[in-house]
Amino acid sequence: MATLDAVLIPGGGLLPSGTPVPWVKARLDRAIALHPQPTYFIPLSAGTPHKPPPLDHHQFPILESVAAAEYLVSQGIAAPRVLPETVSLDTIGNAYFARLQHTDPLKLRRLHIITSAFHLPRVEAVFNWVFDLSSHPMDAYTLTFEAVPNVGISDGALLARYQKEQTSLKKVMELRSHLTSLVQLHQWLYSSHEAYAIARHPARLTDSALATY
């Protein structure tokens, strides 16, 4: 693998202890094992609108990306190379806020995205869409993707999550057809998206699907 500017690791949930769930830990471990290692590691996600976050011993919310960042550092990655994205609440937000917080300002263009197998089709669709919006040809992104096994998820929960992923992927493909700039995406996020628009509320998930968040 050629030298990368950054590896991006989408969020996927925290244990009640505030540490990454097994399927996210698998993503992080694969990121650590990349050779040569990227310049930066960018764990993504503040959390999810589907459940409240765990709290630290001071009763403050634990952000997913910060917990992931702490894991990366505990495994030997130098802290200045770890850039948590601390805003997003879903996969579209993962891509959008990664651009705004880190990759656009630092001009990181060669990006590798690692996620679980159940999540990969939607991640590819979302990140290819969002990172292509409003990009000048001279500043175009080069994205590569990799899936890790769906570890630590029961068969029933995995089936429910695959079903949700199929539904969500169809919605992403519809959005891609008419949201063709960062401005349009921004307007949609804050007017219509269930995780970001003030007047809307996230849809309730089945207990099985909720177990994968």
Task: Walk me through the structure.
With 213 residues, the protein is an alpha/beta fold. 41% of the residues lie in helices and 10% in strands. Strands 2-1-3-4 form a 4-stranded parallel beta sheet. The radius of gyration is 16 Å and the shape is globular. The relative contact order is 0.16. The mean pLDDT is 94.
List keywords for this structure.
single chain; alpha/beta; four-stranded parallel sheet; 7 helices; 41% helix; globular
What would you say about this model in short?
By secondary structure, the protein is of the alpha/beta class.
What is the topology?
Elements (H helix, E strand, L loop, with lengths): L5 E4 L12 H12 L6 E4 L20 H11 L16 H16 L3 E7 L3 H11 L11 E7 L6 H24 L3 H10 L15 H4 L3
Parallel strand pairs: 1-2, 1-3, 3-4
Helix pairs in contact: 3-4, 4-5
